[in-house]
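Friendly challenge for the regulars: who can give me the structure tokens for this chain first? No prize, just bragging rights.
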Amino acid sequence: MTYDVSAVRAQFPALAAGTAHFDGPGGTQTPQPVIDAVANALSRPLSNRGHLLAGERNADSLVVEARRAMGDLLGAEPSGIVFGRSATQLVYDLSRTLATTWSPGDEVVVTRLDHDSNIRPWIQAAERVGATVRRADFDPATGELTTGHIRAVLSDRTRLVAVTAASNLIGTRPPIAEISRLVHDAGALLHVDGVHHTAHSAVDVEALGADFFVCSPYKFLGPHHGVLTARPELLETLRPDKLLPSSDGVPERFELGTLPYELLAGTRAAVDFLAGLDAEASGTRRRRLTASFAALEEHEETLRARLDKGLSALDGITVHSRAADRTPTLLLTFPGRSTTDAYRFLAERGVHAPSGSFYAVEASRRLGLGDTGGLRVGLAPYSNGEDVDRLVAGLSEFLGG
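First reply, four minutes later:
Bragging rights claimed.
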């Protein structure tokens, strides 16, 4: 495996501004090939999808290629890839559709570790049909969400379990494959929020055992929209609200209105960019993605170790990211000091590490941080050692002031 972070960084025009970006969990910067793909799509003829005129063919090709790219990224069938405005919108649409199959007394499980987009839609959908919501806890001391936490809230009335593959707040990666076996043994479906996870690890939805999996390309170097994947045969059983003239085929029946063709072009380009992170990788795009994510994980783990070492030398920091298996995302607080003040202090020095609960409000409350949360530090493919050193130096100065 090879990972040349300097070569990677050279592809990101935004980095020329000099900011050290630790805001990747909220949205990454964009590489030039993605920017070019969006511009190229808009510079060619475009129209509604078809096969006669150039604009029709271009639109259709962009959709087909984007589905193939996301299928390669997620280890999923292209015909099971659904595009939407955002992951949140897709979860809301799915929750409303699935809720039509629930009855009073049925149960839905959500977790306290999740982003609210994988909590509130399920709660609201369950409330509308009289289903019961049960909450799986996590250990605030370790940040771990285990199979035991899920097992404790499963029953023979459970219809769906919604859980994150990685916490966007503290990075915890629950054992999704093991949780899947529990959920399926209970006769329920598993919905996995993969928004944060997909940016840091190779995904295989079949190996995870996810019935539904959502992610957001703008968290892994692409444009702003959302993606949901499920087995095509499962999607065939669902009847979402749709316009009468619109396609009833899968996956189109879940896509409302005209797709953002230029964003899909950027998403395909982002997947191709990720597949090239390991310059020595070869073979199919799926194989190159697997190799490149292995190289990326090694790079990010090295940087995380450097960050952990730097933070451990500073007094006055509490690190809330403690799970044994986690992404390179840390949540920090400073007893007696405001994390918002730290955010502003770092920003003045060209270091972007934002403060908040980042829509993971239930996790923040469970950690004892209320709705305020903490300072979130997230690594990305373009992060380097100098970025880490600038962050640590800035926090040292902040705490010493």
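The longest strand covers residues 158-164. The chain has a mean pLDDT of 98. Your move, everyone else.
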